[in-house]
Amino acid sequence: MTASLEERIKAHAYALGFDLVGIARLGPAETSPAFERWIDAGYAGEMAYLARGAEKRRDTRLPFDGVQSAVVVALDYGGKAPGGPVARYARGDDYHELIADRLNALHRLIEDAVGRAVRGKPYVDTGPILERDLARQAGLGWFGKNTNLINPKLGSYFFLGELLLDLKLAPDAPFATDHCGSCRACLDACPTQAFVEPRVLDATKCISYLTIELKGEIPPAFHAAIAEGEHLYGCDVCGEVCPWNLKFSREVQEPAFEARAVIGEKDARTLAAEILSISVEDFRAAFKGSPMKRAKLNGLRRNAAIVLGAAGAGDPSHRTP
Ligand code: B12
Ligand code: SF4
Ligand code: SF4
User: How much is the pLDDT for 289?
Assistant: First the structure.
C-alpha cells in the first residue's frame, strides 16, 4: 500500500530529526480571545511586538497570503540536563536558525513529493502566530496550567516550529484532553507567583521575561527571587516541577543544544562573576550564535549583579560603554 502524502511528510520530518510532527488546517485561532484578553490586561509588559501582530495572530492564514495547512514540529532540547543558572533552552546554539533550516529542507522534500513548486514559509517564534494554539490544533499536546504545551510522551522541554504551506493536507485531530487534572505544582512553585490563574501568566512577573525580554532595570521586588533561585538567564521552575517532565524529559539529543563551553556546568556565582568582568570582544566570541545574546551584555550584567546580590544591581554603571 502506498503511503499518503501526509504520512510521507511526517516520515521526512522525523528523518530530519524532529521529535513530534502534526498537521493543522489553517484558519481562525481558537484561543485568540484569550490572547487578546492577555494583551489588554497588560501581561505582555514591554513585548510590544506581541500587540503589534495581534491582528494576524487571530487567524493563522493571515501571516502569509494563500496558505492552507501547517506542518507543526517539535524539537526536544533536553530537559533531563540538571538545573543551572541558564534555562535549558538557551545553553546551546540558537534554535531559530536550526529549526528554520530543517523546515526549509522539509519544504523542498514536500515539493519533490508533490512534483511541483509549493509556496511555503517556516516560522519559529518569529512570526505573528500563536504557536501553542497551532500545535494543539495539530495534535501535539495540551495547554498545561503553566501555559506550556505538554505532550504525554515528551513533556514540555521542546521548541515549536511550523511550515505554512499553500497545500491542502488532511489535518490531524486536535489534542482534546487536559492531563493536568487536579495538579497545581507549577502554580505553587513559581518563585514570583506570576500565574494569575491556571493557564494565564502575567509575564511582567515572570523571571524569564524579567531576565531576557525586559530592557531596563528589573524592579527590586523581584531581586530576591532571582538571586535565591540563581536565575541568570530565563527560568525553568514551572517546567521542572511538572510530573510530565519528571517522567519523560530526555538527555540532550541534538548536539547543537549541548551547553557551550562558556556555560558548561558552572555554578551561578562563577558564571555571573565571569559575565561581570568579560570584555565586549570576548562576549561576542563566546556567545556568537547563542540565544543568550538576546539580553545583550548589558542585560546579562544586570542579571549577574542581581544573582551575586550586588547592591545597585540595576544601576546604569553596570552598562557596557
Ligand atoms: C512571549 C513569549 C514568552 C513570554 C510570555 C510567555 C507566556 N506564557 O505567555 C515569556 C518571555 C515569559 C516566555 C517564557 C518562556 N517561553 Co516563550 N514564548 C513567547 C512567544 C513568543 C509568544 C507566546 C504568547 O503568545 N503568549 C501569550 C499567551 C496568551 O499565549 P500562550 O502562553 O501561548 O497561551 C496560549 C494558551 O495557553 C491558550 N490559553 C490562554 N489562556 C487560556 C485559558 C484556558 C482556559 C485555555 C484552555 C487556554 C488558554 O491561549 C494562548 C494563546 O494561544 C512564543 C512563540 C509564539 N510565537 O507563540 C514563545 C514560546 C511559547 N516560549 C517557549 C519557551 C520554551 C519558553 C520558556 C520555557 C523559556 C524559558 N525557560 O525561560 C518560558 C516558559 C514560561 C511559561 N510558563 O510560559 C516555547 C514553548 C514551547 C512549549 N512546549 O510550550 C515557544 C512556543 C517558543 C518556541 N517556538 O518554541 N515566553
Ligand atoms: S518561568 Fe519561572 S517565573 Fe516564569 S512562570 Fe515559570 S516558574 Fe514562574
Ligand atoms: S505541573 Fe501539574 S498543573 Fe502544572 S502543567 Fe504540569 S501537570 Fe499541569
Answer: 96
Mutate to test the pocket of ligand 1, among 59, 102, 125 (most ligand atoms within 8 A of CB): 125
CA angle 201, 203, 207 (to 5 degrees): 110
| Other CB atoms within 10 Å distance of the CB of residue 294 | 14
DSSP conformation class of 119:
-
**Contact 124/95 with Cβ under 8 angstroms?**
yes
Which cell numbers hold the place of 12? 521526512
- 145-156: average pLDDT: 98
Cα–Cα distance for residue pair 291/213, rounded to 1 Å: 12
pLDDT at 206 > cutoff 70: yes
Burial of 18 (0-12, 13-18, 19+ CB in 10 A): buried
Pocket of ligand 2 contains residue 204 by CB under 6 Å? no
Give domain limits for the chain.
5-165, 185-318
In this prediction, residues 86-105 reach a mean pLDDT of: 98
- pLDDT at residue 65, rounded to an integer: 84
Helices (H), 152-279: 185-189, 207-208, 223-229, 237-240, 243-248, 268-277
Residue 217: how many other CB atoms lie within 10 Å: 12
Whether the CB of 106 sits within 6 Å of ligand 2: no
pLDDT of residue 100: 98
Pick the residue whose CA is nearest to atom 2 on ligand 2.
235
- Write the residue with the smallest CA distance to atom 4 of ligand 3: 186
Whether 246 is in the pocket of ligand 3, judged by its Cβ within 6 Å, is no
Query: In this predicted model, what pLDDT tens digit does every residue of 60-84 receive, in sequence order?
Result: 888 888 899 999 999 999 999 999 9
